Amino acid sequence: MKQAIIIGAGPAGLTAAYELLTRAGVHPVVLEQSGDLGGLSRTSVYKGNRIDIGGHRFFSKSDRVMNWWFQFLPLEAAPQDPGALSRPDPKPSPSAPQPAPDPETTDRVMLVRRRRSRIYFLRKFFDYPISFSLDTVAKLGFRRVWSIGWSYLRASLFPLRPEQNLEQFFINRFGRVLYRTFFKSYTEKVWGTPCSQISAAWGAQRIKGLSVTRAFTHAARQALFPPKPDLRQKQTETSLIERFLYPKFGPGQMWEEVAGRVKDLGGEIHLRQRVVKICREADRISAVETVDADTGVVRRWEGDFFFSSMPVKDLVRAMSQDVPANVAEVGEGLVYRDFITVGLLLNRLKVNGSPGQPAASLPDTWIYIQEPDVLLGRLQVFNNWSPYLVRRQDKVWLGLEYFCNCGDGLWSQSDAQIIDLAKNELEKIGIIDSGSVEDATVIRVEKTYPAYFGTYPRFGEIRSFLDKFDNLFLVGRNGMHRYNNQDHSVLTSMTAVDNIIAGRRDKANLWSVNNEESYHEG
């Protein structure tokens, strides 16, 4: 039996392992650097409270991906949350097989969740995507709204050309005033770089399908022609979807299920194995070498096919043998943004999330913090992703997200210092009283976001070099240095296995995943 060496046990790597076993008759060996399954989609647990790092909605416009997920975690019998939208037609369909039992009695289940995301700005909540309702006008003030409208009209009539950077991309679609009000601060928190220095390619990939006009059109359509319940929401921009699927115990539950199936079918998964060398002969990869993090033992793994979801910078470094100078230069110049999540357990919140709601609750899954006087970028309310993420239902379990660079001032602070910062910033903007915090934890994650600056404009040089290796397949977010969503990572591995089965040598279809406008998200 042929063997595949798969670097990384995240969504892309585990999907590849399962697909190779079940469709291609290839034995997979998965090598994971950390001690966890799921990569960026793992679920961390702190004293019985679960943390979804970055927030992972299970949503795809690909029936193939939706069906694949349902193999492992069936759809709940009925939304357990009275606030959730009605479930789809219970009759079998490509994206909704027979429902599972009640999640109160079954752990292997996918919940149907209502999406609610808002912007927090001027110490007030605004709809996301922004809508110009009477409430929004009242909060912004007539003068600012007039400026936004005039600026948008001007941008529509006289767009900036050529559109080279992200600032120009935003201004052309939303106008200069709306960009400065609702996009600039948050985006620059995420990337740590002025929008004028980020390639427009980031916007083209993430929010190509969204604009003020489309947001208005979507709102009008929802009001005049309420859609039939359909989890696929194929005619809806990704930024505008209103519900999504979610594993009962967070995204890591899905990938633990997949890993269990891979092992049951005879596949191998080895944790704490750091890849240090990629061996090759002519235009084929022959083996990889790893170092065991616990024992320091170096081991060689030979195979017929190789899948890599490791960061491209690290992959190129590991291929040091005869790498062209220009490829090595581009690899070293690739930039990543790192990430800190602070979990805060509270008795109650100070802010009132919506009229008529108690102060102890917010309806949001996440909130974009646009306030420029704090470092906090985004706030998750884990209770609303799944109530089963929280050990005690009388507590509020929050995730505060900070974007930084490994080794910078924020990253290098102690956990206690970061927790104090998180509590003080939430108190400063009026969301909590710091004295209500009962417990807290800090999680640091490296290379969370592959950046679209640095040497990224020359990424084609790396792609041309790596694509010539017939048996090497780059998959996933970091594996392709592309801001893929979870379903895109799954699709890249499915496509790579398709190519192996078909004997296809070129990889154009692999790189076309996540180029379709309907997939993009703001």
Explain what this protein looks like in three dimensions.
This protein has 522 residues and is α/β, with parallel strands linked by helices. The chain folds into three domains: 3-40 and 254-334 and 454-519, FAD/NAD(P)-binding domain; 131-217, no CATH class; 336-450, Polyamine Oxidase, Chain A, domain 2. It contains 18 helices and 19 strands. The strands form five sheets. A seven-stranded mixed β-sheet has the order 7-6-15-16-17-14-18. It has a five-stranded parallel β-sheet with strand order 9-2-1-13-19, with helices on one face. Strand 3 (43-46) and strand 4 (49-52) form a beta hairpin. The longest helix is centred in the last third of the chain and has 17 residues, at 486-502. The chain is globular, with a radius of gyration of 23 Å. The two termini are 44 Å apart.
CATH class type of the largest domain: Alpha Beta
Helix share bin: 25-40%
- By CATH, the topology of the largest domain is FAD/NAD(P)-binding domain
The name of the CATH architecture of the largest domain is: 3-Layer(bba) Sandwich
Structural class: alpha/beta
In this structure, how is the largest beta sheet organized? 7 strands, mixed
In CATH, the homologous superfamily of the largest domain goes by the name FAD/NAD(P)-binding domain
Shape: globular
Instruction: Give the mean pLDDT.
Output: 87
Number of domains: 3
Assembly state: single chain
First-residue to last-residue Cα separation: 44 Å
Order of strands, main sheet, comes to: 7-6-15-16-17-14-18
Strand content: 15-25%
